[in-house]
Each structure stands twice: as structure tokens, then as C-alpha cells.
Design brief:
Elements lengths: L1 H31 L15 E6 L9 E9 L4 E14 L2 H11 L9 E13 L6 E11 L2 E11 L5 H16 L5 H12 L1 E2 L4 E2 L3 E8 L4 H13 L1 H12 L6 H20 L2 H8 L4 H4 L11
Antiparallel strand pairs: 1-2, 2-3, 3-4, 4-5, 5-6, 6-9, 7-8
Helix pairs in contact: 3-6
Length: 297
Amino acid sequence: MTEQFDDRKIRASAWFRELRDQIVTAFEALEDRQTEGATAHLPAGRFEVTETKRASDDGSDAGGGLMSVMRGGRVFEKIGVNVSTVHGTLGERAQAAMAARKGIPGMKDDPRFWASGISLVAHMQNPHAPAVHMNTRMFWTPHAWWFGGGSDLNPCIEYDEDTAQFHAVQKEHCDRHGDEHYPRLKAWADEYFYVPHRGRARGVGGIFVDDYCTGDWEADFAFIQDIGRAFLPAYVPLVDKRRDTDWTDGDKDTQLVHRGLYAEYNLVYDRGTKFGLETGHDANAVLMSLPPLAKWV
């Protein structure tokens, strides 16, 4: 399986990098459009790009990626777009988690892994413009491979029409691969992004899939690409619609409290955060999703 997948790994890694470049370009274009209101005096934001490295136990090359962060823009108060391709061996806790959750045999005998993906979190200046999360990824071991990812909308002030538009674009892209996908991925997102200790969802949902492997790599790769392609047309129009809405101090307070909920979820429940820290990836890149400011009542 190792030799068979070398070309597929290259293709997947290249796609995640291509998607990253498209998103960075689109978001800098949003910043270039003149904003009215409270942030009109700010210069257009730009991404600061930093190379990241995965720390291996023996000091050997274990891959890495790019962390692209924008702070204090007209539209985005903080946004991070990370892309990485890492490899190495899984530690005992990660092996146990893989074996238990995915039923992968032989992890102790050959714990090698390879993973590539893109992860994005955006926190907005305007409380009426929704925060958002997106990621897509591929994971490989000598015993199995799978894809995962999705995107979900996290407004602090909800608009039903925005939620409907976001979901409609997700459904359109999922439906290209069969009518059964969207209902299942929507339900999965509703379950995955639920915050048990608060008794509520993190946002208004989206789509989410993990451990996705039908046995047809080409078809599965095409599906995960369309999940990635859905992101910009689902999200950018919502930002354009809300970026200049007037807000009050109360609106900003609502935003900060909602960010506290977001931070709680990512630190307590998010699998990607746990995996990144467990496997030695750059901690700043892993925790890029945390908001610049938050509040708890």
C-alpha cells in the first residue's frame, strides 16, 4: 500500500495547498474592498506567513507546512489558514485512539502515519458577520487510509437567511456525489459541534465527515475536493452582506461571549486540536483557532 499511495499523497497535498492559496487570495480581496463604519480607518489586512515544523522524537524531518495569520484587518479581526503535510510514527496514546475509534489492526507493529490537510478559522471584526471554520484532510497508515473535513458557520448574531444560504451551497456540492451525503454530513456536524457542558451547539452547523473511505480513492478524493470547493461560495457572500452593518457595544459583548464558547469547544472536544498536540505539530499552528479576545459571563 505504501508504494501505491505515493502519487496519491502528492496529489492530495498539492490540492490542499491549492485550496489554501485560493482562500488566502479571496480573503485579501475582501480586505481590499473599502469598509464603512467602525473599521473603515484600518488598513487592509494581509496574511503573515510562517513555516511550521512537526517535532519528531529523533530530530529527523517530519514534515510541516505554512501558517498564514491575519490580525486587525478591516473585515477579519483574526483569521488563520494553515496547510500541512506531516509524517512519522504515532505514539502509544495515538495508536490506542486509532485502534479503538477506527478499528485499525496492527498499529503497534507498524505505527507509521502520513497526514495532510488545510484548516481555517476566521474571527470577524463586525459582530454581525459570522465566524467560520473549515478543514479538509487525508490520513494514511500502512493499514488504512481515509479523508475527513467539512465547514461550519458560527455566528454570534444569527440570521436565518444566512444559515439557509450557507447550507444550500454545501448541499449543492454534496449532491454532486449522491443525494444521501448532505443529510448525513449535516447530522454529523450537528452532533460533532455540540458542546455538552453548555447544552447547545457551537454555531448553526454545516457539514462534517470523518473516517471517510469507501475503498474507491479517486471517488473519495473527488468528494473531499468538492467539500473544499463549497467553502468560498458558501461563506464570502455572507461576509459581504454583513461587513458594514452597524453594531452596538451590546453586539460586541455578545460576540466576545460567543467566542468564549468557541474556545471552550476547541480546547476540550476538538479532535484536530488533540491530535495536533499529541503528535508534536507546531503548537502555535494547532492553537491558531483560538480567538484574539473572548469573554465569559
